[in-house]
Hints:
Blueprint lengths: L26 H11 L1 E3 L5 E3 H15 L1 E3 L5 E3 L2 H16 L21 H15 L23
Antiparallel strand pairs: 1-2, 3-4
Amino acid sequence: MANPTGKGGWTKGQSGNPRGGPPKSRAMTAIxxxxxxxxxxxxxxxxxxxxxxxxxxxxxxxxxxxxxMPNGIxxxxxxxxxxxxxxxxxxxxxxAAKQQVDVMSDxxxxxxxxxxxxxxxxxxxxxxxxxxxxxxxxxxxPPAVAPAGGATD
Length: 153
């Protein structure tokens, strides 16, 4: 692409490639998509797509602990491999389980442990940290605000 200024340099602040580069192909995805579309001949002579075979084989593996390959060989998996496969399948069907992280209470309920004054102080501290003025103030020190029902010193 030629320089739009015609002077041998780019205009300050303008990208030399405003539309970006060409989209990247997802080579492995495309290869797997093509491979999964091919048919597989099962031991009974029936033809199914590679994708369907993977689904059937995966389900057979988690429900029986073994899988019959298209050439008739039966693979039996170890218990730990079976468990890892079950976990993987569960995550891909239902999504990963939501995990709660407790970083403050050592497993105890926080209900009733934080007072209104503490909540108010935390919110006001956040406003001050952000440099926000609340109901006036001169920007020097905390904003001139009191908790509901409370008085300022």
